[in-house]
Amino acid sequence: MPSAFGLALFALLMLALAGGAAAWMGPDILKDLEIRKDLVIPQQARITEGRCKTKLVLVTCDAKLAYSVGARRYTTSVDLFFIDVHFGDYSAGVVRSASKPELATLDIGLDKLWNRIGTLLVIAGFFLAVAGVLVIRALQAARLKRIARTTDDLTPLAVTVGAVAKSWFGKNVACSYEAGGRRHKFSERLRKSEEPFLLGGSWALAVPPANSPTPILVDEALSRLDLTDAERRTLYAARAGLAPGAWPQATAAN
Questions:
Q1: What pTM value is reported for the model?
Q2: What is the DSSP secondary structure assignment for residue 157, as one 8-state letter?
Q3: Residue 251: helix, strand or coil by DSSP?
Q4: Which pLDDT score, from 0 to 100, does residue 250 have?
């Protein structure tokens, strides 16, 4: 399982992305909701640098608006994002609030207003949901590490080490084992300097803590478990005298 710190870091990133989406789309949506209450079409309005870009069904439109209300001249910018299945160019005009003339937008923004609101809710909701899952997994990872360092009820388990994915933050080791007639998979986050406690071939040592179904992969230095020096020497000696494939494959705790 990835480290609690790494999971918490990714959860913060997801929260930042959700906040970024709200900061990007929210102000224009709130402005357009206000304009929608009493909109009028300004005279002598001009759109400059207006363009819409489409990638699959994702559409972004931005433009600069200039218009006059009485003797006063106003300028503002618009940035829209919505989902649409559309072929060809978009056409748009300028609309503004009658009571607050400084608020103006494109009429396409009002046409797609509920689309934009739904898009924001989906994007922000997705990032928030991922952040919630990551927080739960971080708490589980922290609990497993705490159990491993405080309990004496640890049963050795031989697991198969699969792919090892390296990154700037360490390495993610994919493992699997047989229990209850089924093949179970889990992954463990190790530091760059850590290696699995290999038993021969692709077999490595893990321990399923009491009251937890997820094993903890043991490292070569035996530093991830709260062991005495004598217990470490015993494990090294046991591995040295072990015949290939002879390590007990205990059933993980439920």
A1: 0.60
A2: E
A3: coil
A4: 40
